[in-house]
Amino acid sequence: MASKVTVTTLLQMKSNKEKIVALTAYDYPFSRLVDESEVDVILIGDSLGMVVQGESSTLPVTMDEMVYHTRIVARGASRAMVVGDMPFMSYQTELSDALFNAGRLLKEAGASAIKLEGGASVCGLVEAMTRAGIPVMAHIGLTPQSVHQMGGFRVQRDRDRLLEDARQVEAAGAFSVVLEGIPADIAREITDTLKIPTIGIGAGPDCDGQILVLHDLLGLNEGHVPKFVKKYADLA
Ligand code: KIV
Description:
Layout: H1 7-15, E1 20-24, H2 28-36, E2 41-44, H3 48-51, H4 63-74, E3 81-85, H5 95-107, E4 113-117, H6 123-131, E5 136-141, H7 147-150, H8 159-172, E6 176-180, H9 184-193, E7 198-201, E8 209-212, H10 214-217
Parallel strand pairs: 1-2, 1-8, 2-3, 3-4, 4-5, 5-6, 6-7, 7-8
Helix pairs in contact: 5-6, 6-8, 8-9
The structure holds 3-methyl-2-oxobutanoic acid.
C-alpha cells in the first residue's frame, strides 16, 4: 500500500514542484474511489451543505454533521490526507471552543488536519491549534462562510490584503493555504512568496495544487457550477 500523505509530503511536493491534487468527498464509497485515484488530499468541505444537503450556503452545517461525515470519509481513505472543515461558528466564538471542535475532527472523526476560513483575523487560532498538534490548512480569498459580509460569492481582488493574509497564516503555522476566487496573477505571487503549498480553486493554474468539489467535477450537481470547474462527467 502506498504511504500516507502527510504535512511533510505536501511540503516536499511543493519544493519538488509536483502538483498537489485535492478533492472533496462526503461519504465512504466516494472516499474510497477518490483515494484509489491517488488524490493527495481529501477535504470534507462544508460545501457538504450545498452539494449534499441542498442548502443555499454553507452556513447551516453543524459541527456534529462535520464529525459524522469526516468519520465516514476517513474510513475510506488509506493513502490521502484527510482534512476536516470547521463549519461556521465552530471557531468564531471562543478560542477554547475552536480548540475543542478542531480536536473533535482528529479525535472522534480520524482527520489528520483541519481547515478554517480567514487570514490575519484567525492567526491566533492557527497558532493555538498548531501548538496543540492540530495541523491547519488556512483558506483565504473568497471565503463562503462570509457570503453575507462579501455581498455574495465574489472574486476577491485586494492584492495587498490577500498577500498579507497569506503571509500571516504561514507565520502562524498553517501547513498549507487554500486560495479561493482570486485573480491568477495574485495567486501566482502568493505561491511564489510562501514556503507552504497553495491549493487553488478558481485562482488560476499556478498554485501548488488544485482542489475541486467532487460533485461539480462529476456533474452530479444540477445547480450553479462555477466557470472554472472542469466537468469530467455529467452523471446527473
Ligand atoms: O467547503 C469546501 O468544499 C471548500 C473547498 C471548495 C475549498 O472549502
